[in-house]
Amino acid sequence: MKKTNQFALFILVMAVFLAACGSNDKGGNSSEAGAITLKIAHVGSTTHQYQIAADKFKEIVEAKTDGAVKVDIYNNGVLGNENETVEQVMDGTLDITAVVADSSFANIVPEMNVFGIPYLFRNLDHVYKTLDGEIGQELIGKANDKGMKFLGFWEIGFRHFTNNKVEISNPEDMAGLKIRVQPSKVWDAHMAVLKANGTPLGFNELYSAMDQGVVDGQENPLNTIYSMKFYEVQKYLSLTGHTYSPAAVAMSNKAWKSLSAEQQKVVEDAFKEAQLFQREKLAEIDKNIIEEIKEEGVIVTEPNIDAFRELTKEVKDVLSDQVPAELVERIGNIQ
Question: Which long-range contacts (CB under 8 A, 24 or more apart) does 227-230 make?
């Protein structure tokens, strides 16, 4: 009888232990003592805009949850390119990703293509009033409707052309250049009007492609050009500021639901704090980037922006089936 009671007690203890283990299997990644680990992946370097925001997000989440929610950051595309990380978030195998809003993410939310329209945004103040206002909330809602928890927008920045062949001062200087672009309809149209050869290519293949002459150049914000060391393999930088790209930051529903209501609030607040921190940090970094790039031997040109704006003004028309004209007009009217 004693052995029987001991065996019954053993079975009871094991049942309680297994039940406790099972209760932590809620999505995300459970670890010791019931902690949840959220994996966030991006394709940038350890000094890229994505990383600046992700580091701050991690710091705040872990501090405010006393370590109950941990954040692991995977950079340099180690978990896949942007198309792949978006797919992983959608199917719940990755918790969070930050990607270019008007590239891979626009395949899911077509309205995000609005950020690919040349010269739509006048300056950062105009950008922030758009992203932080009613239009930004509408875009977040459209993303949530696609089966994810969309946290919002981090900064990538205004984009500029670099290349190895010619100093770009006017649109005609772009003719014939092989420029790496994001794989989207708007970028095909943009390059076509400039008579350049738009070449879609994975972001993490770009440095070697420019080094080997597979493409002549690319277009990205100053912080990207600097943090990814593109200046090492490019001779000319033209400050065209042709579009502004935000980072779309998406979380899987599985990971979101693995958090308590209190933890969800911490994640949302941490995202916003990281957003503001990143904007301030990038503004500070931007002050010195051009001079540092010049010191690396890159020739920096301030081009004829009016000529670029005039030539590309009809590019938006190719997006009429994806981006409502009313949305473009509303953004343009923000003061």
Answer: 227/44, 227/45, 227/47, 227/48, 227/49, 228/44, 228/45, 228/48, 229/45, 230/162, 230/206
- Give the tokens for residue 247: 């980072």
- Please give the full DSSP string across 16-73, using - where no structure is assigned: HHHHHHHHT-SSSEE-GGG-EEEEEE-SS-TTSHHHHHHHHHHHHHHHHTTTSEEEEE
Alpha-carbon distance 104 to 56, whole Å?
A: 24
Closest to 179 in 3D by CA, of 167, 304, 194, 170:
194
Beta pairing class for 36-41 and 96-100:
parallel
CB contact at 8 A, 114 and 184: no
User: Band of the pLDDT at 104, cuts 50, 70, 90?
Assistant: confident
Q: Where are the alpha helices (DSSP H) in the chain?
A: 2-23, 49-64, 82-91, 124-131, 134-144, 185-193, 206-211, 222-227, 253-257, 261-295, 305-311, 325-332
% of the chain beyond a pLDDT of 70: 90
Residue with tokens 């000529």, as numbered in its chain? 307
pLDDT (average), residues 162-175: 97
CB 220 within 8 A of CB 179: no
pLDDT, position 184: 83
Q: Quick one: pLDDT at residue 29? A: 59
Cα(333)–Cα(335) distance, integer angstroms: 6
- Tell me 166's DSSP state: -
DSSP H or E run through 245: strand 244-251
Instruction: Please tell me the distance from the alpha carbon of residue 198 to that of residue 219, in angstroms, as a whole number.
Output: 11
* 230/215 Cα distance (integer angstroms): 13
Helix (H, G, I), strand (E, B) or coil at 143: helix
The answer to whether the CB of 49 falls within 8 A of the CB of 221 is: yes
End-to-end CA distance of the chain: 83
| 150, two tokens | 């969309």
DSSP string of 283-299, one letter each residue: HHHHHHHHHHHHHTT-E
Tell me the three state secondary structure of residue 170: coil
Q: What is the reported pLDDT for 28? A: 62
pLDDT band at 121 (very low <50, low <70, confident <90, very high): very high
